[in-house]
Amino acid sequence: MDGSYPGDGQPGGENEQIQVMDWDMLESNLDSKVKLAQYQGQKQLKNWVKAFKQITLADGTHWYHGNTLVVVADNTLRRGVTSLFHDQLTAGHPGISKTLQLIQPYYWWPNMKAFITEYIRGCATCQMNKVNTHPSHPPLSPITPIKNTRPFETIAMDFITKLLPSGGYDTILIITDTDCTKPQCSCLAKRL
Ligand SMILES: [Zn+2]
What we know:
The protein is α+β, with helices and mostly antiparallel strands. Helices cover 40% and strands 16% of the residues.
């Protein structure tokens, strides 16, 4: 055995290469757009250079914050960057912190976290898959007692349904006398 396996140098390997090339292509397209936008946003960039000391013309042509490309205030462009790392290809909709962590080695703009937070809160896929840890309960509507009523003059009814069938029955009807000091319940099973 030489450690090789079926597929080495075969179409499977090539497919893997194509995926990598797609990613590179997307990223380089985005890089080009970010760089092009910098030319149009020179005025803004000059203000940022004063405000953010880490911004420099690192390669002599384009603006970088440390080692990361500066994205000027262009919402479409910033959405494109966020989308690439959040919901494109195999990004898999990571959370706010993880998406930020993935973008940070490549791109920078002021208040990135706030932008990414807003983007992810507006992401339909994330919202659909979100686990609701604070379910909202409907408000309680207490029944106001009526004085001097006779037994079972005012009643409330409810069904408990979809129980495991027992003797051919799967539903219980509960009738409660709401004005009695000792509420009485009457139960009735309903045939399937
Ligand atoms: Zn998402």
